[in-house]
Amino acid sequence: MDLKWNDDLPIYRQLRDRVVAMMLEGALNDGDALPSVRNVAAEYRLNPLTVLKGYQELVDEGLVEKKRGRGMFVTEGACKQLLKDERRRFIEKEWPLVAATIVRLGLSTDDLLQAVDATAAEQKRKGKSHD
């Protein structure tokens, strides 16, 4: 987990968001264990209660489950559901703004496809390919 804290959001929320990003990026998959509260707290010099609060949000959302005495694990089906939810959120919330910008700038389908191809090639080069 590579974290840099910003002052705009509580740290527990940033921690929660980073775990979600790791799930979307494929760094954490269904059934995988989350780093222990104790280890995260020590590594990032956080109060363990802050880490626990971030993890508890993930439990409350059904993305993570507690296994008594073993730790916290990504729930089966959580990654697929999270990706579905993020796609829906993008289409409903972000896409209208992106589409309006595309129209305003007069970008063609070819311009956009070239940009997507260039981005995909760059991500593949960096080892971050998603299918």
Q: How would you describe this protein?
A:
The mean pLDDT is 91. The protein contains five helices and two strands. The chain has two domains: 68 residues, Arc Repressor Mutant, subunit A; 39 residues. With 131 residues, it is mainly alpha-helical.
Can you give me a brief rundown of this structure?
It contains five helices and two strands, in the order H-H-H-E-E-H-H. With 131 residues, the chain is mainly α.
Shape: elongated
Mean pLDDT: 91
**What name does CATH use for the topology of the largest domain?**
Arc Repressor Mutant, subunit A
First-residue to last-residue Cα separation? 23 Å
Uncertain ranges = none
| CATH class value of the largest domain | Mainly Alpha
Q: Under the CATH scheme, which architecture of the largest domain would be assigned?
A: Orthogonal Bundle
The percentage of residues in β strands lies in 5-15%
Question: What would you give as the CATH superfamily of the largest domain?
Answer: Winged helix-like DNA-binding domain superfamily/Winged helix DNA-binding domain
Gyration radius over CA: 18 Å
Question: SS-based structural class?
Answer: mainly alpha
The biggest beta sheet reads: 2 strands, antiparallel
**Numbering strands along the chain, what is their spatial order in the largest sheet?**
1-2
Helix count from the secondary structure assignment: 5
What's the number of structural domains? 2
